[in-house]
Automatic annotation (TrEMBL):
Keyword terms of this UniProt record: Signal
Superkingdom of the organism of origin: Bacteria
InterPro entries: Phytase-like_dom
Pfam families in UniProt: Phytase-like
Name of the protein in question: Esterase-like activity of phytase family protein
Residue stretches making up the Phytase-like domain: 39-185
Signal sequence bounds: 1-17
Length: 327
């Protein structure tokens, strides 16, 4: 049996090595954003033809992006979040997060944004491992997520370390299903379903959890980097993950989170003029529509090689054949 297992692993590794490289997405727009006071663009969502952004350094506002010019202007929509619900996280992890919020700002650390067809916006708080719903009228309420979400994630090896919690959120247009992405060490995808005013895990909460590393793009030398998720989007009954270290977007099955196909944006992101210092310039936000992908960068105020220091939103054209295309 051990020999058979080794043989299967070798076959799988050979198949992976022989797989063609992912198709490169074509960049059709690059938009610096003015007016995000705290910078740190960490989430994007397009709701009723309006593109919204959120910063992980500000707990009381969304930004409506005015997209009619090359440089976009961010307009503030304020809200007041009620106290966050208690979640089953260890005291030490909660305190580390609290201290970080006091030092750098953004105690709720909003790291993802999505919306449904009713105009509700959904913001995932990394600090609180919770999701805030902001209605079209600006009313803010925390979703009544089951404690099993965090418990099962931690039992699967996720949400164990500081600054490695929920990094993305996606909701279906009806607002009936909601997915969360755990960032790294281990990364994973979780799902809950709405039942009246509450949410439940139908079966298990965890779709997929995985650790390990994979090669970085050739432009970065190809060295192994930890697998991660930094953004999540729902489109046409598929999940799309933003995979920061690999510089790619992947389409995944709703049932189990399995990868169906990936597309790279490394050629554009790692062009010399767009290079940031190694710790900065990370892709943090993702929104998918039929025409393409919006990708937002959290540069933490650092300038890239060409001197641009504002948050950036990239617009990529949809791949040939659309997002549902097979190889």
């Amino acid at each position: 049996m051990r020999c058979l297992g080794v043989a299967l692993l070798l076959v799988a590794a050979a198949a992976l090595a022989d797989a063609p490289p992912p198709e490169e997405l074509r960049l059709i727009g690059e938009h610096p954003v003015e007016g995000m006071v705290g910078g740190n663009l960490s989430g994007l969502a397009r709701c009723d033809e309006t593109l919204w952004a959120v910063s992980d350094r500000e707990d009381d506002r969304l930004y409506r992006l005015q997209t009619g010019a090359e440089v976009w202007q961010a307009e503030v929509e304020r809200f007041e979040a009620p106290p966050a619900p208690a979640v089953p996280l260890p005291w030490g992890l909660r305190m580390s997060t609290w201290v970080a919020g006091q030092v750098r700002g953004g105690g709720l650390d909003f790291e993802g944004l999505s919306c449904d067809r009713q105009g509700n916006r959904y913001l995932v708080s990394e600090a609180k491992a919770a999701v805030l719903q902001l209605t079209a009228h600006g009313e803010a309420n925390w979703l009544a997520l089951p404690e099993a979400v965090v418990r099962q994630a931690r039992a699967s090896g996720m949400l164990l370390g500081f600054n490695a919690m929920f990094e993305g959120v996606a909701v279906d247009p009806a607002g009936e299903r909601l997915w969360l992405a755990a960032e790294r060490n281990r990364r994973g995808l979780l799902v809950v379903h709405r039942h009246g005013a509450s949410w439940r895990c139908s079966g298990g909460c965890v779709l997929v959890g995985e650790g390990g590393s994979e090669p970085a793009p050739a432009q970065l030398g190809g060295e192994a980097r930890p697998r991660d998720f930094s953004g999540l989007a729902f489109h046409q009954e598929k999940l799309f993950t933003l995979e920061r270290q690999a510089h790619r977007i992947c389409r995944r099955q709703l049932s189990d989170g399995a990868v169906e196909r990936c597309w790279s944006f490394a050629a554009e992101a790692l062009a010399e003029a767009r290079r940031y210092p190694s710790a900065y310039g990370q892709t943090e936000a993702l929104w998918i529509d039929a025409d393409g992908a919006w990708v937002g960068l959290d540069n933490e105020g650092q300038a890239r090689a060409d001197g641009e220091a504002r948050p950036i939103v990239w617009r990529f054209a949809a791949p040939q054949g659309g997002w549902g295309a097979r190889r």
